[in-house]
Amino acid sequence: MTSSGTRGGIDLGGTKIQAAVVGADHKVLGEEREATPTEGGPPDVAAAMVKAMRAAAEQAGVETSELEGVGVGAPGAIDAAAGTVSDAVNLPKWADTSFGLGEALAKELGTEIRIGNDVQVATDAEFHLGAGQPYDSMLGVFWGTGVGGGIVLNGRDWVGRGAAGEIGHIVVKIDGAKCPCGRRGCMEAYAGRRPMEEEARRRHEDGEHTELFKIMKKKGHDRLKSGVWEDAYNDGDKLAKKLLDRAVKALGAGVASAVNVLDVEAVIIGGGLGTRFGEPFKDRIAKQMSKHLFADDRPPAILVAELGDLGGAIGATLLFDEG
Ligand SMILES: [Zn+2]
C-alpha cells in the first residue's frame, strides 16, 4: 500500500535522533525517538537512525521501502550530492571524518535518501508549515545545546557559500567568554546549553550554591538538559536565573545584530531551550533586542516555533518537496 507522497524525515541531533513519517499533506503518521549513541562511530549512529525510522514507519503502517524517500537533517558539513556528512563535532568519532550516511541508510531502508543541514530544514519547516507561514523573510533561531540560525529571504533559503546563518557566533563581547568553536565572545558562549553548563559547574565548584546538579541527578541525567534548567529556574535557583538572564541578554544583542543586517519580517525562536521556555522568554528576548535594534520603531515579529521538537524531522521530509 504505497500511498504516494508518504515520506520519512530524520532529525539527527547530538542528544537524540527524531524520526517521523508524514503523509502528502505533511500530517505526522508515525514518530519515534532514539538516543544518539555516545560511543562507537558513524555506522552506530546510522544504525540507530535506521531503528528509529523503521519504528516510525511501522506506526504509520508502511514499510520503509514504500516511502517516497527519507530526508535527513544533519549537523556538520554536508555534501548533498554525495550523501556524505563530515566534521559533525557533536557525534561520536565523526569530528574528523567523512561518512557516506546516505548510502548506509539507503541500503537498510530501501528508499531514496536526501540530506540537508539540520538548522536549515528546521527553519524551512517553520517557514512552510509553522510560525513563519505569513512571512516572506525570516530568521530561525534555534536555542539549544548551541545556537543555530537559518535564513529565508524572499521565500528562498539563504545558505551563502554553505555556512550562512551561524548566528551563534555573532560576537556579543570582544575578548569575552570562550566559545565551543574555540573563539571568544560569541553569543553561543553565553547562551548555548553546553557552555552554560560548563559555567554552572565552574561556579558551583567555586562554592556558589545551586540545585541544578541535584535536579539533574534526580532526573537521571548526566547533563543539564533543558528540563533541568526549567525546573531550577521555576524553583527560584539563583545561579540558574543568573545564567539564563545572561543568555537572554546575549540572545537579545546577537539576534538584534542579525536583524540589523537582514531586516527580516520575523524572528522565530525554537530549539530545546527556546521551545521549553516558550512565550515568556521570547518576550524577554524581544525586550533585550529592542535595546540594540537600529530600526527600533518597526521591530520584526518575534514568535516561538510552532512545530516544537518535531520541526527538524518534519523539515527533513520537505527535502522531497523540492522535486
Ligand atoms: Zn563561537
Query: How big a fraction of the residues is strand?
Result: 15-25%
**Overall 3D shape:** globular
Instruction: Find the count of extended strands (DSSP E, 2+ residues).
Output: 13
Task: Report the mean per-residue pLDDT as an integer.
Answer: 94
Oligomer: single chain
CATH topology of the largest domain: Nucleotidyltransferase, domain 5
> Which parts are unreliable, with pLDDT below 50 for 5 consecutive residues or more?
none
Described by strand count, sense and barrel closure, the largest sheet is: 5 strands, mixed
Q: Write down the secondary-structure element order.
A: EEEHEEEEHEHEEEHHHHHEHEH
Number of structural domains: 2
List the helices and strands and how they pair.
Blueprint: E1 7-12, E2 16-22, E3 28-35, H1 42-60, E4 70-74, E5 77-79, E6 84-86, E7 98-99, H2 101-109, E8 113-117, H3 118-129, E9 138-143, E10 147-153, E11 156-157, H4 187-191, H5 193-205, H6 212-218, H7 226-234, H8 238-262, E12 266-270, H9 271-290, E13 301-304, H10 311-317
Parallel strand pairs: 1-4, 4-8, 9-12, 12-13
Antiparallel strand pairs: 1-2, 2-3, 5-6, 6-7, 9-10, 10-11
The protein binds zinc ion.
